[in-house]
Amino acid sequence: MEWRLIIANLNNTLISLIPHSLRHTHTSLLAEAGVSLERILERLGHSDDDVTKMRCRKVRKSYARSA
Q: Which of 15, 20, 51, 66, by CA, is between 20 and 30 Å from 2?
C-alpha cells in the first residue's frame, strides 16, 4: 500500500502527494539555491547519479529562463 496525502491548493484543486514528491521538491530547491551537484548527489544518495543530474539540469534551465 502506498502512502498518499490529498491536499487542496489555492484554487481548491485536489493534489495527490506521495513522499517521493517531497524528495523531488527538495532536489529542486537545492538546485535553485545554487547548491553544487556534488553536494546534492551526496545528500540524496541515488544509486544512479544520472537521475539527480537530469533533475538538476531541468530545474536550473527553467530557473535561468524565469530570471
A: 51
